[in-house]
Amino acid sequence: MKRIIGIILILAGIALAFVAYSRHDQEKTIIDLGKVEIKNENKAPSENTTLYYAIAAICIVGGGFLVSSKK
């Protein structure tokens, strides 16, 4: 049972890391007037992105510990 929970935690951690990475370099359109667009490129991580990275790391480490631990 511990191995199954560990594998689920590892997969959840990988998914959260992917979500954090995809949010890290988002480009948002601020104003769209016909052919004129003003965009904001967000290259710095936001507070939520850093939180996603931290939770992903905790899930991966915790899952690895559960998978590698003996009965």
Task: Describe this structure as you would to a colleague.
- With 71 residues, the chain is an alpha+beta fold.
- The chain has one domain (2-68).
- 63% of the residues lie in helices and 18% in strands.
- It contains 2 helices and 2 strands.
- It has helices spanning 2-24, 47-68, and strands spanning 27-33, 36-41.
- A two-stranded antiparallel ribbon has the order 1-2.
- Strand 1 and strand 2 (36-41) form a beta hairpin.
- Helix 1 (2-24) packs antiparallel against helix 2.
- The longest helix has 23 residues, at 2-24.
- The radius of gyration is 18 Å and the shape is rod-shaped.
- The model has no long low-confidence stretch (mean pLDDT 80).
How many DSSP helices? 2
Q: Could you tell me the radius of gyration in angstroms?
A: 18 Å
Q: Report helical residue fraction.
A: 55-70%
Number of separate strands: 2
Q: Which class of secondary structure composition applies to the elements?
A: alpha+beta
- For the terminal residues, how far apart are their CA atoms? 10 Å
Query: How much of the sequence is in beta strands?
Result: 15-25%
Mean pLDDT: 80
- Show unreliable segments: none
Globular, elongated, flat, extended or rod-shaped: what is the shape?
Answer: rod-shaped
Can you list the strand order of the major beta sheet?
A: 1-2
The description of the largest β-sheet is: 2 strands, antiparallel
Number of domains: 1
Secondary-structure element sequence?
A: HEEH
